[in-house]
What does this fold into?
Amino acid sequence: MARSAPDPFARQRGLSGFGEQGQRALGGASVAIVGVGGLGCPVAQYLAAAGVGRLTLIDSDHVSLTNLHRQILFGPDDIGRPKAHAAVHALRARAPGIDLHPVVRRLDASNALELLAGHDVIVDSTDTFASRLVVADTAQELGVPVAWGAVQGWHGQVTVFAGAARMRDLFPEEPAEPIEACEGGAVLGTLCGQVGAAMATEALKIASGAGTSLAGILAVVDARTGRWREIPLASSGPDARTPREAASAGS
It folds into this structure.
């Protein structure tokens, strides 16, 4: 009698509230990861390993030596390669059944709708507020939830923007003083993995329909103590519009 093929997702299917339905939902889901750096690398690994059907990896940057302590999809041989291409190469070796699409472009207001449309979940792993606000505003227009995270130094943050929970409730405008990007500022490599894994968990819950997301709650971790705390976020309400929507309405 022939044995059935091993199920790589058996332990995941066995989760209470997840099961076969959750796994099927993941297999049919399309997720866009914007930024394949310290956060995007662990996010991509975990989503691919979990069986998400389609991943779009959007990043215009190239791998550099100083990336390697935290961008764990890459090795010395990847230095100089586009991050999106290097990430896809690594992921195909780990999860050959995943549909992977590298996009070597910088996402901005002029192309965000084009690049993000058609996805069920967006993961924002970018490291500048200008990019974060573009992702958040575009996702709001598309009606697509965003699993969001950020790291700097010893600190990390994770939340979900969906429905009435929006990034502009947390940051109404881009800060006047730019916060250092991950590339230029000090950051603990393992913290990127910790926060990235939390972001991947939020994306998996959204894509599978299992569990409750962090929408409306900002989870903050201090790696020096290892402790998380939660901060409730005020909502701007269901009728709040993005700047592009407001401009269109006024024209």
About this structure: Strands lie at 30-34, 54-58, 99-103, 121-124, 146-152, 155-161, 217-222, 227-232. The chain has one domain: 19-250.
